Amino acid sequence: MMFAAAAAALIVAIFLGLIRAYLGPTIYDRILAGNMIGTMTVILIAVHGFLAGRPEFLDIALVYALINFIGTIAILKYFRFKDLGHAGTDKGREEVEDDA
Amino acid sequence: MMQRKPILRVTSKVFMPFILIFALYVQFHGDFGPGGGFQAGVIFGSSFILYALIFGLHDAKLVLPSVVLEVMAALGVLIYAGTGVVSFFTGDNFLNYNSLAHDPLHGQHYGILIVELGVGLTVFAAMTLIFYTFAGRGR
Questions:
Q1: Which residues of A43-79 are buried (b: 16+ CB within 10 A; e: fewer)?
Q2: Shortest CB distance from A73 goes to which of B53, B56, B136?
Q3: Which residue of chain B is at minimal alpha-carbon distance from A96?
């Protein structure tokens, strides 16, 4: 019962995040909403694992957290540099450009 | 530019070995829990994708050149198909694990392990190559 209530609360929170992702005036609101939905999903997977009596689901939750982290970094980098492979190191480490 | 982001750099450096260890755990624990070759390959590749995101495609290609990845992608398929062909020599069907060892149970065990290794290798190489190609457009 406790886990079911937690799962219901998490689903409500995910819907709130979806609304923010849809309404979000700036791109950063949407990215933050997406990141929050990801975090909620991690907890939802863990809660579902305990709800269904299969604690192995924690492994899947770990993987989801990892992919969420890398995905958020990739999206932020794409919107900042418009280029995923960019590092400022392609022409040598000394030529670090200014943060515009 | 990413040199000015010390938190991201340090975090990814600290995370990378744990991601690799977790990928190996998923790979070799796949027959008891959730996981297997495909998932392990994706997790293994995601650590190198993280490295390429933080330190740039140029540095990532110094660590893991595209040529090595192309060879690894083909090698995984070769391991998979080779495991299947081995059972031909004892007069069994393609990919019949029972003939890999004297005890059919051990044969199943080795067969699944080797085939999953091939799958993981190919998926890791393919995922990283897709990212290299995608991030390297227009240069």
A1: bbbbbbbebeeeeebbbbbbbbbbebbbeebbbbbee
A2: B53
A3: B1
B49 contacts on A by Cβ (under 8 Å): 70, 74
Question: For chain A, which residues make up each domain, given as ranges?
Answer: 2-81
- Residues of A within 8 A of B23 (CB-CB) are none
List, run by run, the mean pLDDT of 10-residue segments along chain A (100 residues).
92 94 90 94 93 86 91 88 67 42
Distance from the Cα of B2 to chain A's closest Cα (Å) equals: 6
pLDDT digits 0-9 by tens, B85-115: 888 888 778 878 877 777 888 888 888 888 9
Q: What is the ipTM of this complex?
A: 0.79
Residue B102 is given by DSSP the state S
